[in-house]
């Protein structure tokens, strides 16, 4: 690619994206898709031959319509119809696409699905999601049959299924069978050598083998440090693999220089094999395509730039699977890679820094800057600590992955490698937890105008010589964002409407951690901790069900199993609102529970905010799995808490007087007694 010329791969990539987006929001009738595609092909080819100087315009138009055609055929823009009514479906069958173990459940996604009414099978090709017990032995590419169905519900283009019985069968395809056997062998190796190191074994499976059966605790720690990409096999892992292979081939460097094409083929085959055993997820496919394009161009002596490789990789992925465009993983993966490539090329190096340190700084900075808008648009949060933690954890992760490769490949060295590998994993985990404990969380929800504004500013800085073209674009997006920042924006769910009322009674129930009922004039608020179960909830639910008032469920913390946490009370009382800890949104089962276990009646969900009052109650302490709630009761201030000691009391917000303090666990010291006397508790 000549300097200053826009890459051809990105012209095709962006044109394809425009067609997919148009089909998402302005869907074309399925009956006209093929007709539109054929007509556009004839039209664009004909006019390209006539007007050769502007043939690129017709190529862009045709690529965009191709994106619309492919997206439409994959179901984008439509709600797929089941061949049978939901009530008539007795069995569901499909190939396992993804397995994620979360707590006591294993979430399974199925593709190539079929449904049966007990007499005949019908193809659906709708993605099916279900959950099984955590100990279920199931792997991607296995075949899963669900029968004795308890519940079945179609949500957009997904079918959520709960079954009493199921059966798992091994795949018929040879490669899938090999993949399953390989995972079983590696699992046996890990179980043998990491027998007394479960935490380290879990991290090893994630960071080296791309295992998606992740511990929620581990995931949250890595998310807070901005290093979750180390747990998802992606481009950085393929980079580690290439470095590892080059170290192995170092004694043969003279041969490699003379026959570099043979070694490039070896590296390419190794990348394909590693991508295969880690499940061909979007990040690793993107990275494998980039490496593959780069190595193939070296083999055929047609060099290609990094930004062109990114464009071609994106084009191929979306051409094969257009729906990936709306996957946040795809967006983050390409944003990070594009950021790294552009900053490495267009940000001048700092001469005072060593070259390796300068490259690391620019790469990490580019990845962080380009992914922040995606995270703000999808999640509304980001962690600035990632700018610092990546400098330490990425090299440490590279050592873990390299040593992990050696441990798996060289069986005769395992007895020597296991001790340093475990210690390195311990250091890696402790370092990550340390950064996590000091990592602040920034909340800012961006709409499309805000995201485009940030990217236009970034491009204006990178391509300073093009400021005459980019400045008007940047100013336009900025004005759109500033003039009407709340256009088409829903009222944030985490800011509940404040309803002035006075507390009439407070009831404390026997509990495992905290169970409290606050009865107002027109409503009842039931405060539930994550430790409560049916045995403790029954008295409270029975009492509330006899009242003719609006019920609000207030959950202090997300339980390990957030399904049963909400299922029991919702079964007997119909709440008008569920207030939850904002951290529940990080739980991978949150979306499943919302669409699966909620009753048919519409129930508003919201998230309480720290120190924000709602019906005269507010959370005033929330640290280390301990919570304190302040209630205004007939002119008095009452605290209901899971735990209380002198240090915790010192952190509570100032109040002239606390009239009553209830704590499930009270550590009554001399200092705390003095505080109680001062506050006339």
**What is the alpha-carbon Rg in Å?**
28 Å
Low-confidence stretches: 485-503
- Please count the beta strands (DSSP E, at least 2 residues each): 18
Q: Total helix count?
A: 22
Tell me roughly what share of residues is in helical segments: 40-55%
Averaged pLDDT: 81
Short description, anyone?
This protein is of the alpha/beta class and 681 residues long. The chain is built from 22 helices and 18 strands.
Report on the structure:
With 681 residues, the protein is an alpha/beta fold. It folds into 5 domains: 8-73; 86-172, OB fold (Dihydrolipoamide Acetyltransferase, E2P) (Beta Barrel), CATH 2.40.50.140; 181-443, no CATH class; 448-483; 503-678, Metallo-beta-lactamase, Chain A. The protein contains 22 helices and 18 strands. The chain is globular, with a radius of gyration of 28 Å. It starts with 7 loop residues before the first helix and ends with a helix.
């Amino acid at each position: 690619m000549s300097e200053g010329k826009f890459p051809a791969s990105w012209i095709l990539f962006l044109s394809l994206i425009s067609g997919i987006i148009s089909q998402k929001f302005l869907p074309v009738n399925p009956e006209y898709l093929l007709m539109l595609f054929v007509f556009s092909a004839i039209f664009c080819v004909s006019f390209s031959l006539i007007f050769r100087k502007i043939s690129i315009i017709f190529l862009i138009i045709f690529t965009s319509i191709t994106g619309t055609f492919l997206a439409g055929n994959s179901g984008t823009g439509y709600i797929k119809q089941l061949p049978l009514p939901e009530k008539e479906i007795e069995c569901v069958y499909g190939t396992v696409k993804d397995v994620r173990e979360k707590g006591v459940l294993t979430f399974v996604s199925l593709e190539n699905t079929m449904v049966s009414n007990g007499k005949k099978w019908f193809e659906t090709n709708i993605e099916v999601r279900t959950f099984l017990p955590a100990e279920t032995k199931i792997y991607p590419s296995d075949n899963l049959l669900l029968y004795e169905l308890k519940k079945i519900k179609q949500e957009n283009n997904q079918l959520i299924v709960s079954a009493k019985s199921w059966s798992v069968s091994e795949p018929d395809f040879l490669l899938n069978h090999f993949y399953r056997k390989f995972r079983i062998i590696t699992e046996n190796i890990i179980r043998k050598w990491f027998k007394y190191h479960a935490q380290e074994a879990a991290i090893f499976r994630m960071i080296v083998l791309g295992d998606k059966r992740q511990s929620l605790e581990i995931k949250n720690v890595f998310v807070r440090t901005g290093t979750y990409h180390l747990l998802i096999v992606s481009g950085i892992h393929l980079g580690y693999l290439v470095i590892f292979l080059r170290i192995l081939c170092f004694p043969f460097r003279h041969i490699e220089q003379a026959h570099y094409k043979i070694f490039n083929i070896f590296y390419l085959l190794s990348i394909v094999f590693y991508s295969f055993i880690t499940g061909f997820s979007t990040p690793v496919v993107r990275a494998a395509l980039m490496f593959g394009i780069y190595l193939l161009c070296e083999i055929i002596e047609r060099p290609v730039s990094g930004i062109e490789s990114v464009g071609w990789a994106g084009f191929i992925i979306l051409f094969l699977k257009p729906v990936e465009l709306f996957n946040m993983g795809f967006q983050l993966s390409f944003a990070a890679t594009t950021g790294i490539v552009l900053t490495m090329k267009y940000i001048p190096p700092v001469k005072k820094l060593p070259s390796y340190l300068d490259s690391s700084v620019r790469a990490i900075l580019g990845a962080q800057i380009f992914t922040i808008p995606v995270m703000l648009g999808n999640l509304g949060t980001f962690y600035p600590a990632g700018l610092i933690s990546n400098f330490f954890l990425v090299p440490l992760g590279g050592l873990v992955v390299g040593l992990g490769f050696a441990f798996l490949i060289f069986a005769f060295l395992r007895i020597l490698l296991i001790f340093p590998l475990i210690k390195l994993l311990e250091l890696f985990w402790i370092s990550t937890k340390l950064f996590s404990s000091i990592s602040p969380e920034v909340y800012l929800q961006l709409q499309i105008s805000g995201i485009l504004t940030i990217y236009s500013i970034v491009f204006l800085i990178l391509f300073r010589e093009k400021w005459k073209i980019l400045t008007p674009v940047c100013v336009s997006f900025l004005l759109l964002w500033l003039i009407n920042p709340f256009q088409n924006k829903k009222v944030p769910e985490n800011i509940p409407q404040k309803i002035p009322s006075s507390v009439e009674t407070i009831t404390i129930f026997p509990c495992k951690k905290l169970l409290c009922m606050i009865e107002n004039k027109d409503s009842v608020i039931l405060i539930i901790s994550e430790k409560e179960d049916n045995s403790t909830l029954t008295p409270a639910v029975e009492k509330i069900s006899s009242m003719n008032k609006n019920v609000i469920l207030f959950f202090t913390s997300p339980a390990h199993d957030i399904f049963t946490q909400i299922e029991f009370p919702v079964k007997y009382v119909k709440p008008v609102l569920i207030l939850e800890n904002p951290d529940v949104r990080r739980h991978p089962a949150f979306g499943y529970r919302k669409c699966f276990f909620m009753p048919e009646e519409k129930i508003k969900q919201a998230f309480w905010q720290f120190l924000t009052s709602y019906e005269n109650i507010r959370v005033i302490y929330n640290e280390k799995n301990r919570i304190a709630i302040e209630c205004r009761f007939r002119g008095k201030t009452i605290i209901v808490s899971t735990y209380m000691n002198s240090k915790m009391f010192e952190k509570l917000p100032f109040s002239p007087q606390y009239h009553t303090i209830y704590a499930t666990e009270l550590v009554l010291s001399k200092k705390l007694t003095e505080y109680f006397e001062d506050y006339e508790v």
